Request: fold
Amino acid sequence: MITGKYPNLRLRRNRKESWSRRLTQESTLSPNDFILPIFLIDGSNKKESISTMPGVYRYSINRISQVIDRAIKIGIPMVALFPKTKNSLKNEIGSESLNENNLVCKAITEIKKKYKNKIGIMCDVALDPYTSHGHDGLIRSNQIINDDTIEVLINQSLLQAEIGCDVLAPSDMMDGRIGKIRKALDKSGYQNVQILSYAAKYASSFYGPFRDAVGSKGSLKGDKKTYQMDFRNSDEAMREVALDIKEGADMVMVKPGMPYLDIIKSVKEKFKIPVFAYQVSGEYSLISNAIQKKIVNNDIVVESLMAFKRAGANAIVSYYADRIDKILK
Ligand code: PBG
Reply:
């Protein structure tokens, strides 16, 4: 691999000026590489800050055009919608997930009406924003039950597809859900709805601020270790990805992002399919709070994002996406 040798070979020669460094760069970032998560709340004219995530807000439906306008202007290809459901609407079985007037459905309708196909819409398929216990699936005798959960996820997928969601993103980690959702979508005429599987999703403490943002933190009983992956494992991630591809996933997600760059790289090398990285809430919070406290400077953001591209990610879900034009300048 290494050809040549000092003093004939001096790697610093290519680094000597900015123009030369730009010419020899291996990875690049542009707004096309980003998916912007948007938190939704009920009510009207609301833009609520989230204390653990400086610079990130929850928007009421009538205020989301403010964010979408910006996203389209800077060239972000897709947004991901996450609802903060009122506690009074949560129950054991997450039935609000199947309400055609829930926050996510209302937001999809608004965005499609106003923007047509100028920007893609991605929606999570999982029950945690809707269950009183904060888990992604149904619970029976203290267990998250796989197959019955899938039946609800199928209905949630069909509903979101019908309202106009472009990309369904099952983030629940139940076994076999991709195949069953794909089959149900096809049977109902939604062959063109894409599936982005959260295939390698780890049980992670990096999700803390997100659970704050969607209001599932206080309610979550126990942890998610019986369905999300064990962070000691990487072979298992390859098995998860292989299964989801066989079942019909168009794209796969690795989540969290930065602590799992090795997984992103292996998935890309082994499977040659679109791989997305999720720079999750905890990563965002650590970086943003450290910048605010002047422990590190702003450049850390680009460095953290470029790492995903270097590892082989096609795109990145990031809470920085709405400011990425300024960040990349
Ligand atoms: C829910 C879901 C989670 C995230 C995205 N979808 C949290 C969880 O699994 O508990 C986390 C995103 C983030 O931390 O930014 N299935």
Q: What stands out?
A: The CA atoms of residues 74 and 323 lie 9 Å apart. The pocket of PBG is lined by residues 124, 126, 128, 136, 171, 207, 210-211, 224, 280-281 (CB under 6 Å). The first strand starts at residue 34 and ends at 41.
